[in-house]
Amino acid sequence: MNNLIDSLLLPGERIKSKITGTFALDEGTGIRYMNGVLIATDIRLIWFSKYPFGLKETIIYKYVDLNYVDITESSLTFHNGIMIKGKWISSGDMEQFLDTIKFFSLYRLIDKARKRFD
């Protein structure tokens, strides 16, 4: 599985934190429970899931699209209304993972604002 995850990374992109488990994904049309890995890199957030029969699902989220990180509820909310909530985490530290996401989302917003004024 690590080779598959490494193949998703851009040149120079590094994994900062990751968690594996079951997540509730609410896209506004209902809640869907998904097993997989949520990866926080220094550039973006990657959802990766591998299903039986070779099926894979990858979803890329940009840090600037992140609206709210709730550590007490273990959830991420994006501008477009999508919410990801950790339900059953089998590996990784959810609190550290969410702290990493908060750091990089704030860093990306500051960088975006700085470029706007340059």
From TrEMBL:
Domain of life from the UniProt record: Bacteria
Pfam families: bPH_3
Source organism per UniProt: Psychrobacillus psychrodurans
Every YokE-like PH domain range: 15-102
Name used for this protein in its record: PH domain-containing protein
